[in-house]
Write a structure and sequence with these properties.
The complex is a heterodimer of chains A (72) and B (72). Chain A contains one helix and three strands. Chain A is α+β, with helices and mostly antiparallel strands. The chains are: A alpha+beta (72), B alpha+beta (72).
């Protein structure tokens, strides 16, 4: 049976920049690499809160990007 | 003008690891940045090619100004 093996993990923070001149919602994302594969959601949330606390814009979403390799 | 906050850490191999935050708050104090850096090390999410982050090295903000020149 084929298996999925986690090979890489990244943390993506999406910031809410408000509305642009055309009244459209604007987001800006920042992706952090070098995230430990063993990092649990609590640790990631703590990191997201700290990093976004240094930032001007409110945090809209924190996402975890996982890359999995499918193998036999 | 684009401003970036760079937080520098030292890893297990004694090398510098930089974590950046775009558009940092203008009101940030040294103590707040130091506390955030301690928090990031406690959360223990980030790793580097040279192992874990072991200590704080420093922090700085970088301003980037782009000026368009009209060349014909």
């Amino acid at each position: 049976m084929a298996q999925a093996v986690l090979t890489d993990r990244q943390l993506r923070l999406v910031y809410d920049l408000g509305l642009n001149m055309e009244g459209k919602q604007v987001f800006k994302a920042k992706t952090y690499s070098n995230v430990k594969p063993a990092a649990d959601p609590d640790q990631l949330m703590a990191t997201a809160v700290i990093l976004s606390g240094l930032q001007k814009y409110p945090l809209f979403a924190a996402e975890r990007l996982d890359t999995n390799e499918i193998q036999n | 003008m684009a401003k970036t906050l760079e937080m520098q850490f030292v890893n297990e191999q004694g090398k510098t690891v930089t974590i950046t935050v775009d558009a940092p708050k203008d009101s940030l104090t040294k103590d707040e940045i130091a506390a955030a850096m301690d928090g990031l090390m406690t959360a223990n999410v980030f790793i580097s090619g040279g192992g874990n982050l072991t200590s704080k090295k420093g922090a700085r903000t970088v301003d980037r100004t782009v000026t368009e020149m009209d060349i014909k």
